[in-house]
Amino acid sequence: MGLENKDTGAADGKTARTITFTSSHDNINLNVSQPDGPHVIGTVQVHEDVPADVAPKVEVVNTDSKETSSKIKNVDVTEHLLSLEEVCEKYNVKADAMRPQDSYGLSTAQVVQLLETNGPNRLTPPKRKSALHKFMICLMSLFNLMLIAAGILVYILLAIDYENNKSSIYMGAILIGVAFMNAGVEWYQQRKSENTMAALLQMIPAKTHTIREGRLETTQSADIVVGDVVYLRMGDKVPADCYIFAANELKVDNSSLTGESEPQERAAGNSMRNPLEATNMAFNGTLAVSGDAYAIVVRTGDNTVLGQIAGLTAGEEKAQSPLSREIATFVHIIAGVAMLTAVVFFVVSMCLYKNFGLGIQFAIGTFVAWVPEGLPATVTMLLTIAAKRMAAQNVLVKDLQGVETLGAITLLATDKTGTLTRNQMTVANVWAAGTLYAAMRSHDDAGQQITSPDEPGMHEVLVTSALCSSAKFDRTDVPVESRQLLGDATEAGLVRFAANRMPTDFDDLPQRHAKVFEIPFNSANKWMLTIHQLAHANGPLTLLIKGAPERILALCSTILTGNAAVPLDAGHRVQYDETYRYMASRGHRVLAFAQLQLDGSEYTADYVFDRKHANYPTTGYTFVGLASLEDPPKHGVREAIGRCRSAGIQVMMVTGDHPLTAEAIARKINLLIGETREAVAANTGRPIAEIREDEYDAVIVHGESIPDMSADDWDAVFRKAEVIFARTSPKNKLEIVARAQELGHIVGVTGDGVNDSPCIRKADLGIAMNQSGSDVSKEAASMILLDDNFASIINGIEEGRLIFANLKKSIRYTVSHSTPEVVPQIMYVIIPVPVMLTSITILMIDLGFEIFAALTYAWEPPESARGLMKLPPRKPVSMHSIAMLRARRARHTPPALHPSTGEPIVPGRLARIARAIRAPFSKLWWQDRFERSEGEVLVDGDLLSWAYLEAGMISAISLTTMFFVVLNSYGISPRQAQAMAKDTSVAYFNKDSPDYTYNGRTFTGEEQFYALNGARTGLLFSIYILQVFNLFICKARFRMPFGRFMFRNIRTFYGFSAGLVLLVIITYIPPLNVVFNSSYKAIPLYWLIAVGFGFLLLGYASLRMLVLRKSRPIKWNRTIDGLHMHPTIWSTRHTTHSVVDAP
């Protein structure tokens, strides 16, 4: 492999560093491009669907935070060139290539010493943006730049005309200071959020199977040391750089390291000199996607290949979430309105008063009044708090996007085994030699009890269960019931069954009948095959196979009856079908067993089998029997699925099991209640073809039929309320998710296995299991259930819906003060009146007491116990929404695709900016903006109407009344105040203003000054008091704004109390009166005016709610008949948080 390092010019004018690896044998070019930009950790664009012969180049794109002269270090790995003996000698470890499971490994003393010498197996955290860099990014936001520009403009005005603008001497510094303070708050919250998410991710430490002192045990990956013997199996993440000395069809996904899109085969032995091409090496951070292997750790931590080239993959940029984009869009629109309003009223002011400085001050005040400066920081804080609360309920989101997405899910596709069921397989029935046996005592079991392991056919089933397996006991020096099993739950159930039935012979079986060849189970074949030194009359070797019954039966030509094999005929198939149907209908997982005694004349004891050349028999096997394994549903799953469906979420089972097994389990857990087409036909005695679509509610789709389904077929399937996909492959699962997303569904996918990981990654929200889930699935997921309890998803969905509702309430409350801040600015120019509200005071309102109150919504409980879960998802999928979505896609030109990869071509930064500028001048842009959406958006017309027109105007009237009443108490009437403000030849209301005489009374400059500031203080308290009423009113979305639910959130009182303390401080501490134009002489008696308007606002909100209930009644989800919602003793513990009957 060669290495080339060069600089190239990027599309946006920046320099990008490109490192090209050239492979000598696979003709693969790996281009790692590092353009100038932020580092992105693990951001690898892999084009997986393109065959190597079509697309010989695989691009791994990483961005860099700054220009760097760093270069790739030499990959310091040479062990791949050594023999096993040399590696063992180098690391003083004992490993056995012939019997790897019996390797001794390292001693405990060696491990302790090496861990102390080399440190833990961790990578040094990648270089991140400095705190100053992040702060500057926050400071460069649109709002802050505009505030800084306004502050600079104030000082320019002071420089031009100091005398007429000296009253604003503090305003410039405060505007700039507020920009820095706003950036500081946002920076602090981002940092706090990052730290919170990092701490949550530490809750799921990676673990590895190691062999130490001859015992297989589970070890934290951080405690792995060089020389450790590790056991890698399908689904594991490779914990360090490892030298493989024994492997069984191991394939690793190196895409995170090298970008190779296809899994790479790994085995003992190597002929390549370059370590990255070595077939006997598995590197840190890669994933084992099939097979298993034993390996010796040769590098840990920063000494691994990943650690040596970590600069190529380091970084931290993340895509902006949909909710964040929605908020950003709203904020930018408000900023645009603010700028436009400021410009318009600046022009009006210039036309009326011909005073440039006055116009600029007015424009600044108008702009500041419109913009909700604290909104972005508030949203970040709300989401962070929600993420921590979800973690407390065993739902771990990897980033804040998961918080919002979970509450928006419309379709949940879930695997069966390990997700809906306990993943604790127990053999229930065995059918062998034409006889059905019951492995457990059960009152409803038709089989007879197993009396001896040597009964006809039973011995073969037990031997196949023990030998044709990758499950392993951790030790053999204790009784079977005291051992731990490492392996797949199905195989573990079979192995334990065999061990219990053959207690004296079991431990010796692998030694007496050594394995000489193996093809591991995979989702394509759906079977596992092994060949053992199991002698018989015709030779020394026997082939054993187990797997999906229909696949195994298709490979057989004979069947074992008694102690002899006879040709498989129609009668045997009927008996097989009846037994299979009986087992599967009980919800059991069914496996078939077969064998073939290999002819010794062709397959000698030293015969070398080769999978690639398939030099082993592939048909003509002898069918041995069936075994069914019971995997009962998890406690609480039935109620959880019932609540999901009651919440308007479509729940589908996507499983590799037989349709009958899937249906039986589904009917136990509320997933399937209605009848299928076949059931209706059977019940009515009509042919299936005569059954109409509206006569059945459930459909079970076999995976083999998926490739032949048309778009209309998919539409018909998703229209059904109850859907099961059975016998699916990973490719089928991917297509199911993609088809659902095409219809507009927000798809959540749950799973725990390697075969689930592609669709988990594809889904809008991938959900993995922490305890039973594979490393591959947890790597792909964006959310992890820490307790493996499906019922935890319900808590997460409710929490997601609650945070969306509370975000909406918080925004509704926050923007309500914009109108009462803008109206005084307009009155100042149009009427005119004295300056009622200064820019400094507006900023104090927005970033002072308002932010305290807005944050309290993070802890707001739902209005009623189950109101949230009786509502449909906020973006429901219906026939109308699908039609709208397809119409929108039809009128837009699809993105250009890369000719070799088929992936959409992402335009450069300049092209994106140019497109954004041109967009508003196109018809499509406006058509999309004004197209009515069926779903609920964060900022809708109802919210804007309440905030800006209804509550906003009532608050504006309140503060105007308060202002003039207080001003009149000082002897200055509204008419008098207007006359003084209109006289532009003299500047009144300053301490040094000339005396003003009206109706025989003279007002000195100092009296004018204190009168105006007293009125401003009353106005400030008016906004505060009205917003306290509004704080409670915004809690009520479906109910009247009265009742105990309004006071359940104790933090509400903390929030407005903190705001009151702030107001009292700036009012009654005289030095602060100078800055905020307040007066310590303010009389609290006048605040009762605002209290009266507060009750008026409350009454109006109540009347409004009554009108809305009549005109736009709430659309609750329909009740689903037949759901079994009686909680069990185990599931009640998981339903303590929220959501019961709709109000």
Description:
The chain is α/β, with parallel strands linked by helices. Among the domains are: 88-124 and 204-313, Calcium-transporting ATPase, cytoplasmic transduction domain A (Distorted Sandwich); 395-421 and 635-788, HAD superfamily/HAD-like (Rossmann fold, 3-Layer(aba) Sandwich); 426-630, Calcium-transporting ATPase, cytoplasmic domain N (3-Layer(aba) Sandwich); 950-1111, Calcium-transporting ATPase, transmembrane domain (Up-down Bundle). The chain is 41% helix and 16% strand. It contains 35 helices and 33 strands. The strands form six sheets. Strands 14, 15, 16, 19, 20, 21, 22, 23, 24 and 25 form a ten-stranded mixed sheet that branches. A hairpin with a 5-residue loop joins strand 1 and strand 2. Helix 8 packs antiparallel against helix 9 (356-370) and helix 12 (458-467) crosses helix 13 (489-501). The longest helix has 32 residues, at 322-353.
Helices, strands, pairings?
Elements: E1 2-9, E2 15-22, E3 29-34, E4 57-61, H1 84-91, H2 108-118, H3 131-139, H4 142-160, H5 162-165, H6 171-201, E5 207-212, E6 215-220, E7 229-233, E8 241-253, E9 264-266, E10 281-282, E11 287-299, H7 305-308, H8 322-353, H9 356-370, H10 375-392, E12 395-397, H11 401-408, E13 411-414, E14 426-432, E15 435-438, E16 448-449, H12 458-467, E17 472-473, E18 485-486, H13 489-501, H14 509-512, E19 515-519, E20 527-532, E21 542-547, H15 549-554, E22 556-561, E23 564-567, H16 570-585, E24 589-597, E25 621-630, H17 637-646, E26 650-654, H18 659-668, H19 677-684, E27 698-702, H20 711-719, E28 722-726, H21 730-742, E29 747-751, H22 757-762, E30 765-769, H23 775-780, E31 783-785, H24 791-814, H25 818-830, H26 839-855, H27 879-891, H28 909-918, H29 923-930, H30 941-969, H31 974-982, E32 996-998, E33 1001-1003, H32 1005-1033, H33 1051-1068, H34 1070-1076, H35 1087-1111
Parallel strand pairs: 3-4, 13-26, 13-29, 15-16, 22-25, 26-28, 27-28, 29-30, 30-31
Antiparallel strand pairs: 1-2, 2-3, 5-6, 5-7, 7-11, 8-9, 8-10, 8-11, 12-31, 14-15, 14-25, 17-18, 19-20, 20-21, 21-24, 22-23, 24-25, 32-33
